[in-house]
Amino acid sequence: MSVRRTVARALAVGALLALAACGAGAPQGADGKVVLRVGDQLGVIKATLDSAGEGQPADYTIQWSNFTAGPPIIAAQTGGSLDVGWMAETPLVFAQAAGSPVKVVGVSRPSDKPGERQGFPYALVVLPDSPLRSVADLRGKAVAVRSGTVLQYMLARQLAQAGLGLNDVKTLEVTSLGTSLLDKGAADAQTVNEPFLTQMLETGKVRVLAPGGPPVTPGFGYVVASDKALADPKRAKAIGDLVVRLARANLWQNAHAAQAAPALAKIYRTDPRIAQRIIERTPSVFAPIDGTVIAAHQQEADLFHKEGLIRNRLDAGAIFDTRFNPLIQRVEDNR
Known about the structure:
Structural class: alpha/beta
Strand order of the largest sheet: 2-1-3-10-4-11
CATH superfamily of the largest domain: Periplasmic binding protein-like II
Distance between the termini: 49 Å
CATH topology of the largest domain: D-Maltodextrin-Binding Protein, domain 2
Helix content: 40-55%
Oligomer: single chain
Shape: globular
């Protein structure tokens, strides 16, 4: 099966999962408040907001739905059952290529505070006793990856740096969390993200073949809103407030990793010590959407175009809505 068909199948499956998770109708608040329907991943941003005391807005209500990746969130927004979603940057490349009615309204980046960032958010890993020692060794090997996600972009970038492309390896679609294909011997290498990466590294279950995050990938987190929600003044105001709350919550979490860890540990089903380590390894901060963000996204879109995963070259700037930049700048100014 071609890489393009694999991505298409993954996005189609995501659409079905999204409809099942969220339903089709927009909810109505009995108290007259706006109900903002938000797609989370594993409950992480909800836990972050709640730990920081930012999870209970007064002027609107948040209705949460949980997903395991960005593509099904995009599918739910396209189908009209979500207003906002949280994800890494890659799903937006495919969303724009497909004409999905969504925009990026907020961006978090890895913290550049000296000494604060201690690790990387995802990686290409192998079993500890694997004979593979470099990405160049992957030619002709089987690599497990979830299509349409930042893990696919990380793999494409790692391969490109080694003089290879996605067609030089056999990609296997990951349909569950963890490293099942690697453990079974079906894959020679596998892409892994948090919260699994830190847990596996702490226990010695895997060895990092190549790290992700800067400078391999930008490590962005995107707040994505549907065009329909942004066109509604009341809903758009709530979206802006949510972005601000996320920005403040991230700053609080960076400074209070030990206090934030127990809530995340429950979600990750791990020890609070591991959850704290995850926070400390990959702290992030929100910043206004600027030319550096758009340029990095353009580079990503161009790589997928070169690999043949999207047909036409995209204008990356068209997927961003900067209306909330002043609100984010205000948070930055008050740090």
